[in-house]
Structure formats: structure tokens, C-alpha cells
Amino acid sequence: MSRKTPDWIDQREEARTRDLLGQLRDAMPPAEVQERIAWRAMERFERRRSLLWSRGFGFGLAAATAAALVGVGLHLWGPAPGPALPPKGSLHAATEAPSSFRVGAHEVVLSPESQVEVTAAEPELIELLVTSGTATFDVSPLGPGEIFRVRTEHVLVEVVGTRFSVQSERVCSTVVVEEGRVRVSDTEGAVVELAPNQKRRFCPQDRADALLREALVLISGGGSIEEAIELLEAYLDSAPGSALEEEALYHLCLAHARLGHAEEARRLAARFRERFPQSTRLERLERGLATLE
Amino acid sequence: MSLLERCQAGDASAWNQLFRERSGQVYRWAVLLGLNPADAEEAAQEVFAIAARRIDTCHADDALGSWLFQITRRVVANVRRSGWLKRALFGEKPLEPAFGPAESPETAKEIAVRACLAKIPREQAEVLVLMEVEGHTREEVADILGLPPGTVASRARLGRKAFLRHWQEMQEAAGDLALSWGEK
Questions:
Q1: B21 and B55 share a domain?
Q2: What is the model's pLDDT at position B103?
Q3: pLDDT at residue B24, as a whole number
Q4: CA distance B177 to chain A (A)
Q5: Which one, out of A6, B62, B109, B146, has a CA that is 20 to 30 A from the CA of A167?
Q6: For chain B, what is the domain count?
Q7: Domain limits at B57?
Q8: Which of B71, B93, B115 represents a domain boundary (last residue)?
Q9: Which residue of chain B is at minimal alpha-carbon distance from A207?
Q10: What pLDDT, on the 0 to 100 scale, is given for residue A9?
Q11: What residues make up the domain containing A285?
Q12: Does residue A86 form part of some domain?
């Protein structure tokens, strides 16, 4: 059970932190760095503007030529043009509230704190990359030869049907199908088809191992224990029952002990004892926990 | 016409003014949220590129700062996420001076403060940067981050404790922070 810190301690800590951090209140980079940032930002702004302008001009010219060649009548009674596609490379993000955008006839809904990049936007190929968070895709029926697919770092989801969501986390990606079917390929080349109401989590083992490695580097190098805890928890979550579970659980328990999280450390120690009763690490674990007394 | 309205209208001189006025601040945020100077410079440019694309989503001139901070925290998180493999393989790079000349006492203190900030959870660091460096009130931070004021207060309290604990350890251990589980 946590104890409430007396107000005067909080106030003293507040004043001390303000004193230390307040020294950076007016910290500014050297003038040449500020100048370089502003100049490059302006350069990018101008480049984008001229690109948009030239695209607009190009479209205008093409439209005028087409109208002249084909004739206004055909233009008026011909088939309606498809909905516009977003530019390749464009980023769509939701901050605190969900947001949505259209990719041609399809709709993408972003959950808060999510971001999607358009990596291909052509009439026959639409490819989106979920860089963070969760996006739900409402895909209109595809014509013959049309491809709609979604990537994360860990999977490639190809639409066979209509409505599904893809969540990209640190190590794993989760695909949930609401309607229709999707085909999912993981980084090891395995392909599965998911039907409505099916949900599958994809966690490449090498990514999970990298998490554990990163956590151990932090611990042994005097890095952030909080960050190491986060990595170890993500590892255990993504690779339950793996060969390195013992290693991860052991370090997670001691990391909590190190931070004084007595209850959590004891809970993890009990789990460790239960999972690995013959482990040679048990004795060292007990010694680490003894510091909590 | 306000600066925001001029930017929304696509006025290049307004954008130039915005970039110049805010470049130092955005860079400072990126550094304090854990980036090294070179990455912070790149991140600041990326923040402005996103700002130029999404300026229509900023609704008030006086919200420009908090709107840029929100973009900055996401860009910084992306940069940190994309660099995790490098950090895992080669470890965290030693901090380099970001604001002043090397070898000055102020720079040593700046690096020590940044090292402690880097060790606390990101969401607590964000709150501390907004409150203690930028001087925002708890309610303003709640508004900027879209959180209840109670959550901001709790993150600030935990962040201060963690920050001071690391500061204390840094003072005491004088560089010897290596841990040896169970043997110490």
C-alpha cells in the first residue's frame, strides 16, 4: 500500500526540480543552428509549394487538353471520375481524438495517438503503412487487379474482403477482421487468411529478442530502469513461454526491487518460483528481494 | 491578420517568421525530450514540415505553441522508436552539449539535467518540461496534453521524485552507475 508523501516534502522537491530544470528555461541552440533549422524548413516549405503548384498546373493543362480533344459532351456524359487519392508519402495522424481520411473510395479511421503513411497511391495499388497506433480500414469492393494492402513493421495485410483493423505496437502487430477476408504475411514469410471475427497477433521472435537485449543493455549500462521494465514487460507479453522467459522474468523482478516496488517485485518472484522452481537464479533473486525488507 | 491566419493563407513570409521565431523552442523541446543535437535539428525540421501540412488543424494563434509541442512530442517519439535498434546494439550515445559551448560549467549542468530527464518515463518528462522549463501551469499542461489535471499533477509528482533520485544518484555515484544484480 502506498503512503502519502507529506506536503512539505512535495513542495521541497518541486522547488528543487524547478531550480534545476528552470536553468534551461532560456536555453537556445547556437544562432547558426536556429538559422539552419529555419532555412531548411523554409526550403522544404517552398519545395512542397512548388510541387503542389506544378501538380495543379499539370492537372489543369491535362484537363484542358483532354476537354479539347475529347469534347465537352463526352466529358459531361462520360463516366464519373473516381475519388481523389492522397499523395504518396503523405502522413495522417490522430492526436487525442480519432480522425479519419479517405483513400479513393476507401475510408481509414485512426484511433487516438495513431499515424498512417501512404506509401503507394495509384488506381491499381494502394499501400498504407501503420507507423503507430491502430487504424481501421473500411475497404470498398475492389475491382479486378486492384490491390489494397496495409503494412506494419511486422506484417503485410492484403485485402481480400472489406473491413479490418491493424494495430502496430513495439514488437507485435494485431490484425482483427470484422467483415470479409484478409491475407496476412509475417516477416518469416508465413501467410494466413483471416475470416470475420478472427483476431491474430504477430510477434516476430527476433524483434522480441532485441527487446530483451535492449533491456539488458540498459540495466548493465546504468540506463533507465523504468525503460528496462517497459521493455521486459513488452518482451514477456510478446514471447510467452520463450526460451529466455526465465532471464526476462528474473531481471524484471530485480528491476522492480531496485525501484522499491516491493509488492510488484514479490508478485513477480512468486511467479518466477512457480515457473522455474529448479532455477539456479532463485537464490540470487531471494538476496535481491531481501534488500526490500 | 494574425500570424496563424497568414500561415493558413499560405503566406511564405509568415511561414518564414514562424520558423525563425519557433526554431529554437522546438529544438529545445526535442533535446529535453531525449534527442541528441543532430537528431533534434532534424526533428525540428520535420516538426515544421508537418506543421506546414497540417496548419488547418490549429485553431487559435495563442494555441500555436502547444500545437507545435504536440507535433514535437510525436516526432521525437518516432525518432526514438526508429533508433531503438541502434541503441540496443551500440548502447545510448553519450550526451553532447546542445545549447552552449563544450567544457563550460553551465554545459556540464545542462548535460547532467538532460541525463536525468532521459532516465525518467517519457510522459513524466513531458510534464516536467512543460511545467518547470516552459513555465506552464498544471491546467495549461492538462490542456496541451489533453489529460485531466489530476493526471498531470500525479505525473509531475512522480517525475520530480524520479528526476531528483537520479540527480542524487548521479551526484553520489560520480559515474559509477553500473548495476550488478544480486551481488551488490
A1: yes
A2: 57
A3: 92
A4: 5
A5: B146
A6: 2
A7: 1-93
A8: B93
A9: B85
A10: 67
A11: 206-290
A12: no
Q: Render B84-135 in DSSP notation, one character per residue.
A: HHHHHHH-PPPP--SSS-TTSHHHHHHHHHHHHHHHS-HHHHHHHIIIIIS-
Q: Which residue has the higher pLDDT, A65 or B95?
A: B95
**Whether B69 and B149 share a structural domain:** no
CATH code where residue B82 lies: 1.10.1740.10
B162, pLDDT greater than 90? yes
pTM of the predicted model, to two decimals? 0.49
Could you tell me the sign of the dihedral formed by the alpha carbons of A232, A234, A239, A241, in that order? positive
**Closest-CA distance of chain A to residue B16, Å:** 6
- Best B7, B18, B19, B29 residue to mutate vs chain A (most A CBs within 10 Å): B19
pLDDT (0 to 100) of residue A69: 53
Contacts of A26 in chain B (CB under 8 A): none
A158, A149 Cβ separation under 8 angstroms: yes
Among chain B residues, the shortest Cα distance to A97 is held by B146
Q: Longest Cα pair distance anywhere in chain A, in angstroms?
A: 88
Among A41, A251, A132, smallest CA distance to B80 is for A132
Best B73, B132, B138, B151 member to test A by mutation, with max A CBs in 10 Å, is B132
Q: Are A200 and A180 in contact (CB under 8 A)?
A: no
Same domain for B124 and B63: no
Place of cell 497511391: A121
Pick A65 or B140 by higher pLDDT.
Answer: B140
